[in-house]
Amino acid sequence: MHWILLFVAGLFEISWAVGLKFSHGFTQIIPSVLTVLGMVASFYFLSLALRNLPLGTAYAIWTGIGTIGTVILGILLFKEPISFMRIACIALIVCGITGLKLITH
Prior knowledge:
83% helix; 0% strand; flat
């Protein structure tokens, strides 16, 4: 269950990171409110996951999920550049997340 909570926290991290872009520096009210709600939800679920997971592992995986998701959504929503090197770096993050998950009991 704690891994699911961590994954949900990561999804909310993606939502607030993308929400920051849509909020235009917190000048747009609805995206700004949704961004703050995403932040609160992300930290809440992370805090629940941290009850049972090591801090370093949970934090690395949480930020990794957020990084991967925001890169993908940046490409899809904001036409950010896609290149072999960007994909290779994301693949390294995926390998790191997978490794941390596999070695954590």
